[in-house]
Amino acid sequence: MVRETLAEYFGFEEHGTDLRTEIIAGITTFLAMSYIVVVNPAIMTFFPGEDGKPGIAIEGYTPGEVQQMLTVVTILAAAVAIFVMAFYANRPFGQAPGLGLNAFFAFTVIGQLGVPWETALAAVVVEGVIFIILTAIGAREYIIKLFPQPVKFGVGTGIGLFLGIIGLQAMGIVSNDPETLVTLGNIASSPLAILSVVGLFFTLALYVRGFPGSIVIGIITTTLAGIVLTFAGVVSPGVVAGEFVKNGSFQPSALTGAQYDITPLFGAFIDGLQNVEGLTFALIVFTFFFVDFFDTAGTLVGVGQAGDMLDEDGNMPDIDKPLMADAVGTTAGGILGTSTVTTYIESATGVEEGGRTGMTALVIGILFLLALVVVPLATIIPLYASHIALVVVALLMLRNVVDIQWDKLTHAVPAGLTIIIMPLTYSIAYGIAAGIISYPIVKAANGEWRDVHIGQWLMAAAFVLYFYIRTSGVLEATV
């Protein structure tokens, strides 16, 4: 009875899926993005000392307690957005506080600009309310439809490369280099990298064989292998399994004894609204708004392309609904006490497993809520294991490149810039910006200026303005 009800509500038959596929897809996406439960609180929390970092600090609470509060807030904000995605949008996307935006919140807004964290939260709430209004009147959907076709078709491949470099770095296969920026990691001398490589090829072998749930199995198997190697004494605790082994017992090292009282964070934005300096606050809201808008738009289009959810013009039908989930999530996140919520590119892992409806999102949301009960255990999956999924999906998303008209330079240039700028700047929004700025320029240079919509010129101008504000020091100068 329950199976039939879910099938009818989410439209399994219409979307060519079933309950088992949707559950596996939801688990896959959750495992791929569950790292945010640990990473977001770590970025957002103020840690004093010589090697400290800026972020949220609450009088009367230790950094550890604030970090635990933020863990709970991260989970709740993600769940709110994901349930709107599931029941209202009926799309298989996972959402949570966004990486990059949380770093801007902590390091730039609080650290460099010296803005109180309560005011930074107020900026997030204002941004979310603006998003809700723009989504409700159809403005966000209209703007996304103005994206040039080559940019839309380049987003998927760009996200693939972006996912690839994120995953390979977490796995120790690619590492930082002061001269070449990135280089090959010391794989042979790194147990973590060796285990990652074995886990990756094991997962790929399962996937090409068409084994159901291959990505989930690969992630879990790699995680268990790391724990077994640690228990067996092959590697020291903390090398491949975190500090899960201490004195012969199983002891997760991160965020034990979670602090569930979030009242110091909840509603703090109200105090922040009373401490607003007009121009600085407006520029902060503008930055949050711009990056979140185009990150979410790019993710929806790119992952939608991978899941064959776009129409012949590269548009996602009813995209206003998943956009509303993003807007509601951002507003709720700011009220609860965290930075901007956005749609995760890791959603591509679940889509590749066959997830096509809100049932996938429902599973993701439920798993996030379950993580509240076992916050310490929610961090068991290490980054190198969960990010195997990103590399697998990266390889699969590269096939989207065939949709681009490479023999037509007015398509190849904006599509190519969209693709290469994403991984090189670690930003979906910047890749889209490069494509949108270049499109009207190359079209006009080729005598095709009549094909460029006035809205596309305006978007290009807006991106130029954004980059000026973001990179010229204007924002810092207003403080």
From TrEMBL:
One of its GO terms (cellular component) is plasma membrane. It is found in: Cell membrane. Signal peptide: none annotated. GO terms for molecular function: purine nucleobase transmembrane transporter activity. It comes from the Archaea. PANTHER family: XANTHINE/URACIL PERMEASE C887.17-RELATED, XANTHINE_URACIL PERMEASE C887.17-RELATED. This is Xanthine/uracil/vitamin C permease, AzgA family. It comes from Halapricum desulfuricans. The gene is azgA.
